[in-house]
Specification:
This protein has 74 residues and is mainly beta. It is built from one helix and five strands.
Length: 74
């Protein structure tokens, strides 16, 4: 996991497994078993699969939900 601290937003990059896919977000579990809900564009939800691993980058602002920056199959 990579996190940049000291600004209003933090960017995280990690390998995750997709636990749940909803219309506007995905629920992921990282290798340390931490669960995170990430906001994604609706089009992405049609391209990913539950129980598959992906390398994701997402931004988390101080106030607000994490938002996907990129996602790649592992």
């Amino acid at each position: 996991m990579v996190a940049f601290v000291g600004c209003q937003s933090t960017e995280t990059a990690e390998v995750v497994k997709i636990i749940e896919i909803n219309e506007n977000n995905i629920v992921v579990e990282n290798l340390s078993n931490r669960i995170t809900t990430i906001t994604v564009p609706k089009i992405i939800t049609n391209l990913i699969k539950v129980d598959k691993e992906y390398f994701v980058k997402y931004k988390h602002r101080r106030w607000g939900d994490p938002k996907i920056v990129s996602i790649e199959p592992r």
